Amino acid sequence: VQLQASGGGLVQAGGSLRLSCAVSGSTFSNYGMSWYRQPPGKQREFVAHIRSDTSTNYADSVKGRFTISRDNAKNTVYLQMNSLKPEDTAVYYCTQRWYWGQGTLVTVSS
């Protein structure tokens, strides 16, 4: 199973970004997908999860600002990030079961 995350970059506080994660090598629609992030100098933390039935849950720190979604036809999971804050700066990883992507860097400037 391979996961390829993309869409990171530099954005000003208050801005938006959409991350994508393309998955290959598994029956994508059967599995839940998650996003995690690791801020500089800190531990990795949970961001959002979407189940195969498209139900979702979020970390309190991103609830109301981030939206996770999936397109089973494209084997892709998304993370729409709005109202970004400097504390959202991190490397963002997508995961499926025990598989992890390589991460994409999001930097939010104040």
* Total of helices: 0
Largest sheet geometry: 7 strands, mixed
Taken from the alpha-carbon principal axes, the silhouette is: globular
Q: Structural class of the helix and strand makeup? A: mainly beta
Query: Percentage of helical residues?
Result: under 10%
Low-confidence stretches: none
Radius of gyration from CA coordinates: 13 Å
Cα distance, first to last residue?
Answer: 37 Å
Q: Tell me the series of helices and strands, N- to C-terminal.
A: EEEEEEEEEEE
Portion in strands = over 45%
Output mean pLDDT: 97
Number of strand segments: 11
What does this molecule look like?
The chain has 110 residues and is mainly beta. The chain has no helices and 11 strands. Strands 2, 4, 5, 6, 9, 10 and 11 form a 7-stranded mixed sheet that branches. The protein has a 4-stranded antiparallel sheet with strand order 1-3-8-7, with no helix packed on it. It is globular, with a radius of gyration of 13 Å. The termini are far apart. The relative contact order is 0.33. The model has no long low-confidence stretch (mean pLDDT 97).
